[in-house]
Amino acid sequence: xxxxxxxxxxxxxxxxxxxxxxxxxxxxxxxxxxxxxxxxxxxxxxxxxxxxxxxxxxxxxxxxxxxxxxxxxxxxxxxxxxxxxxxxxxxxxxxxxxxxxxxxxxxxxxxxxxxxxxxxxxxxxxxxxxxxxxxxxxxxxxxxxxxxxxxxxxxxxxxxxxxxxxxxxxxxxxxxxxxxxxxxxxxxxxxxxxxxxxxxxxxxx
Length: 205
Prior knowledge:
Layout: H1 14-22, E1 30-33, H2 41-47, E2 54-60, H3 72-84, E3 87-93, H4 104-107, H5 112-136, H6 141-149, H7 159-174, H8 184-189, H9 194-203
Antiparallel strand pairs: 1-3, 2-3
Helix pairs in contact: 3-6
């Protein structure tokens, strides 16, 4: 991989180099490279199959439960907004996989406790953003629908997002080979937690 510079630093950041190596190492069946440079996707798509890996463009849409006092058509407009802004990346797997509606964290092999924390945080933050948009439009739901159709959604700082950011930093300190953000329970339990055990498996890579 280093010979073609794919894992040598230009196309992949360090975090994603580890993520990529976990797949052929048999530590998990799938990874999603979201920071690979667009110009290098063609290289990865051409080379990885020669190494026995399947790869292709992935568009991940999220469907979080929203806690917002709004009519169904506003909720539907928000879900349409989300569908237009998927998380994009290059998926790499040992074989062709259909994940259906599985949470992304589970598909990526993250501990369920950490995946649940991540889903809960993002659901809360998206609910907060939609509530702020409704307030900005002074409760005019037609204006809210129009704003969402135009791709307008405010960036909102929340306590839950700040807590997630702190967990991210703690995860990098405690579990340097972890590829996700650990939940509070994993951070508190350290090496014996699901994240700690996963870290130990990946450290051999």
